Every structure is written in C-alpha cells, then in structure tokens.
Fold this sequence. Notes:
Blueprint: E1 9-14, H1 19-33, E2 38-43, H2 46-54, E3 60-64, E4 74-89, E5 109-112, H3 121-133, E6 138-141, H4 148-157, E7 162-165, E8 176-180, E9 187-195, H5 201-207
Parallel strand pairs: 1-2, 1-3, 5-6
Antiparallel strand pairs: 3-9, 4-7, 4-8, 4-9
Helix pairs in contact: 1-5
Amino acid sequence: MTKLPRHKEIRIGYLASAFEEYLAPALKKLRKVHPRTKVKLLDLFPGEQITALRKGEIDIGLTLETGALLGRDFYTRKLAVDKSVVFLPQGHPLASRKELRLAELKNETFLMGPDDHIPGVRRQLIRICRRCGKFKPRLINVTAAEDSSSVLALVVKEDAVALGPVFLSRWKAPDVAVIPITDSGVTWNLNLVWQRGQITEALRALLDAPSLQAQSTE
C-alpha cells in the first residue's frame, strides 16, 4: 500500500454560509489527528474556487453547484442537496408568508450575480423557473459584490428577489425576509472538489470527517 504524502498545510476554499454546518466540525476532527497541519481558509465565490483549484492555489473547495462541471478535472463529492429559499424586501406583499411556491414569483425580478462568481447559475435559475414555476424569470445583473451578504443587501435596494439554497439564509441582511420554497425540484447541490493525485494524509483525514460525507437536507 502506497503511503500518502505528508503536507504541512491544507488550503481550503469555502462558502462562508456553509462553514459552520459542514467545514467547522471537519476541521475540529482534523486538528485532533493532525495537530501540526496548518489550515489556510479562503472565503471564495464558487468561480473563484475553480480558478484557485486550477492554479494549484487551494487543495480543496466547498462550493455550490459548479463542482458538477469539474468532474473531468477534479474529484467531486456531492455533499448535500439543499432546498431553496427566496429573499424578499420586508415590505413585499409576500414577505409575511411562511412558505411560497415558485410560480408565485413569476412577476418578480430576480437578482443575478456575475457568472464568473457562480458559473452556470444563470442557466440553472432559468431551468428551475421554467420546469418548476412554468415561467421565464426576469433577471437583473449584479455587476459587483464582495460576498453573499452584499448581494442580499441589493434585494432591498433594487426592489428585487433572490433565490438560493437554504444555507444562505444564515446570512442576515437588514430589511430582508427569507421564505422557504416548497417545490421539491427547486434544489442546489453543495459539492466538495479537490485535485486529482494530490491526496495527503491530512487531506484524507479531512475528507473522512462525518460532516463532509454525502448527505441530504431535503
């Protein structure tokens, strides 16, 4: 059996809103079995994680949806399938509802971040709306955003809505209501992505952590 190489550092790209549930428990386990391994954490959009992986700047990414696009370049693991929520301005007529069907948003304008931040998300949103809501969404482009919370803040400024996975609801934005979407097909994949041929002892221990095993939040 080939012994895995040692590594003094693991560089991790991640989505901050998914950190506490998935990555934090895994890092706690890692520190117990590899206490001397340094961990470098980089809060990056999915598109930034792809670029960093290809450049060898990170060893593993915790990323939304785009991991499915990287199957030939990297190893991927579908970590979770998350249901959707919609972010609405507090003053919106639907903001007091406990849940919504996607079709009820057919007349709304959807915020859409830059495609290089989340590659493929535009195509996915259009597909979801057509399949589950029977409408083509009207989109407004967000040209720049520092993080997910700044995107959500634009919900109020632009009087628009934003659709995303449940774990994004951990971000708190002023005057923004978060409503669950009940349609079963309106889901998002959360993936782990790592480089082929770059498995170290510490990285293997991280990948073996229970919180980073395939699960479902449906």
